[in-house]
Design brief:
This protein has 367 residues and is of the alpha/beta class. It is 50% helix and 14% strand. The protein folds into 2 domains: 163 residues, D-Maltodextrin-Binding Protein, domain 2, CATH 3.40.190.170; 148 residues, 3-Layer(aba) Sandwich (D-Maltodextrin-Binding Protein, domain 2). 45% of the residues are buried.
Length: 367
């Protein structure tokens, strides 16, 4: 009787509420409505490294949203060219893209600092700057100019200096060298007299094959081996001081993101941020495996850049950063100062912590 009485009271209350009762019943159906997003990427579909990571992000957004956001991935050239994804999402042609900040220097030089910096932040430090050093607020402010909401969603770890047909023995060997790179590294190389060209990985292979390029860097052993650069240039140089790490990003059309209910905003945010470590550690693991395979089976010769070459690169990189400090755009100046402050903080600590441990691991002892 008690249960029946309660049901009767609830039914009466709902009837008395009228429209309010109807709204309460309809709310779950509205909350569970689904939407489809187009993700455009700067990569060939399932390219080892960034192409794989893009698909992981699409799948994770779909999963964490409970299927309320279904993300369809379009590889470079399927909906828009790889270099057109920033504008496509800014203009509303697609809802989200996956790329790297290093590709958007024509929009603002300040953007380049969020992806990689010559002699700059490692992968751990890069995400540390955004989450602990105020970088995310600046990232949001810069991309907000273009109607975008950005997140880092992965990192390739330390990149390599690149594939060279001939050995590099001095700074003079760089002069006139036709070289593929991107971002602030390209400005560093230009200051050393290198003839820098920006292009995708597939185009880089063709340019090396035809002789249009003398050398080039793309990412690292895992992705580079899949693209076959070792078939043409056997000298593989380290360290990649032009990009001590390279962050991958996604950006969502700001209006689309702001119109999401709060729980779906959190789902998208977490999908991106939660992939940073899995993507980074997959790169690191598979880079190591691919390097072993290329050296053992493909005749790749691993070579270190001479110290005088690295010092010349460091001086050139310092000039690039100094130019950003004096940029006409006040926001670019603030981004640069924030980055430099966090870099200085890490340089005061990492030699004792991570670098100290890595150096100790290389000592001659039985383990």
């Amino acid at each position: 009787m008690t249960t029946l009485t309660r049901r009767g009271l609830i039914g009466g209350a709902a009837a008395a509420a009228g429209v309010a009762g109807t709204t309460t019943l309809a709310a779950p159906a509205i909350a569970q409505s689904t939407m489809t997003w187009k993700m455009v990427t700067a990569w060939p579909k399932n390219l080892p490294g960034p192409g794989v990571a893009a698909q992981m992000l699409a799948d994770r957004i779909t999963a964490l949203s409970g299927g309320r956001i279904k993300v369809d991935l379009y590889a470079a050239g399927e909906l828009v060219p790889g270099n057109g994804v920033f504008d496509a999402v800014s203009e509303g042609t697609a809802e989200i893209y996956h790329a790297v900040p290093a590709y958007w220097g024509s929009k603002s030089k300040g953007i380049l600092l969020f992806g990689s910096q010559p002699f700059g932040l490692g992968a751990m430090e890069q995400v540390g700057w955004l989450t602990q050093g105020g970088g995310q607020d600046l990232y949001d402010e810069m991309y907000g100019r273009f109607g975008l909401k950005p997140f880092l969603c992965g990192n390739s770890g330390p990149q390599w200096a690149g594939w060279f047909r001939n050995e590099i023995k001095s700074v003079d060997d760089l002069k006139g060298l036709r070289f593929r790179t991107t971002g602030l590294a390209s400005e560093m190389c230009n200051k050393l007299g290198m003839a820098v060209q920006a292009m995708g990985g597939g185009a880089m292979f063709q340019a090396l094959q035809s002789g249009a390029l003398d050398a080039g860097e793309f990412i690292g052993p895992w992705t580079d081996s899949a693209l076959g650069f070792y078939q043409i240039a056997k000298n593989y140089y380290w360290p990649g001081v032009g990009e001590p790490s390279s962050a991958e990003e996604c950006a969502i059309n700001a209006e689309v993101y702001e119109n999401l209910p709060a729980d779906l905003q959190q789902a998208v945010k977490f999908a991106a941020e939660s992939l940073y470590n899995p993507v980074w550690t997959e790169y690191t693991t598979k880079h190591a495996q691919a390097l072993q395979q290329m050296v053992a089976n493909e005749g790749v010769m691993v070579r270190k850049l001479p110290d005088d070459v690295m010092i010349a690169m460091g001086n050139a990189a310092g000039e690039v950063i100094a130019e950003l400090q004096g940029d006409d755009d006040e926001l670019v100046r603030r981004i640069t100062e924030s980055y430099l402050a966090y870099r200085a903080l890490m340089m005061s600590y990492i030699p004792y912590a991570d670098a100290g441990e890595y150096n100790a691991r290389q000592l001659d002892y039985k383990y």
